[in-house]
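Reopening: structure tokens for the NAP complex, inputs below.
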Amino acid sequence: MKILVTGAGGQVGGSLIDHGAQNNCEVVGLDRAALDISDLSAVQAVLNDQQPDIVINAAAYTAVDRAEAESERALAINATGPENLALVCKKLDIPLLHISTDFVFDGDKQGAYVETDSVAPLSVYGVSKAKGETNIAAVGGKHIILRTAWVFGGEQNFVTTMLRLGASRTELNIVDDQIGGPTSCEDIAQCLLTIATRVVDGDFSEWGIYHYCGAPSVSWFGFASAIFAGKEAPKLNPIPTKDYPTPAVRPKNSVLDCTKIKQIFNIDQPDWRSALSSFLG
Ligand SMILES: NC(=O)c1ccc[n+]([C@@H]2O[C@H](COP(=O)([O-])OP(=O)(O)OC[C@H]3O[C@@H](n4cnc5c(N)ncnc54)[C@H](OP(=O)(O)O)[C@@H]3O)[C@@H](O)[C@H]2O)c1
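Re-run output (same inputs, fresh job):
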């Protein structure tokens, strides 16, 4: 199976390159310099040249707070970029796997979000990702959109930020009223490769949106406590969101229901605690 991965320089993109090789796939990984997904003619040229069996889009504008001041750029990458990929993939009859986010929801729901819940993003980033989803669906080609949440495992994420701050501070205030399912980029990569294999092997028609995130659900404070468990740690203070104002508003409830992906692909919800301990180890 030949897989083309966009955004190969990122957390999930990098893990896809590693896991693809371990799974005996031919993986063509393209970072932003090699393929800018917001450039339709570049997307056309690369896909015509490479003719992969499947495309996985791991490219995105992920600077959630900066997006509030850079909405045009966020939309070009997160909304137009996926549309460009969908248009060219449809023309060449190549399935497209795309990654989206819990930030398409407003976080007001009691209980976990299912794939059919209405989106209501609170931030520019969330709006841009939601538009990416609808743009892909509107093109109407073969596609799967995997919504995930709280990604860690690469070079820059909540875990690495905690470790960096923990090394220089004696006390940290951590938000305790936003809950979600931390998800390692390794688990996301393996999940996407399982889906890709099933899709490329054929006999598949369940296109659309799937949720995939780590369990059990936890607050940022709870996640930070796990990161520092057993280590010389700063004092951690749980605080409400209102005491940690950020440019972008984040959903209070980011928990995604992962029943559908289990039913269709037999993919289990990963336990973030074991992924965290491998990452820290
Ligand atoms: N991080 C999270 O907590 C989180 C949560 C839920 C969902 N997601 C979604 O998961 C996916 C992967 O996220 P991630 O954490 O792996 O993000 P990441 O580490 O920021 O990686 C994204 C990659 O996309 C590249 N990129 C940016 N603009 C591009 C363009 N125009 N063309 C091609 N590549 C471009 C970036 O390159 P540069 O660094 O050079 O700009 C970066 O290497 C994204 O769709 C994201 O929205 C992430």
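DSSP finds nine helices and twelve strands in the chain. Residues 71-92 form the longest helix (22 residues). Marking as resolved unless the reporter disagrees.
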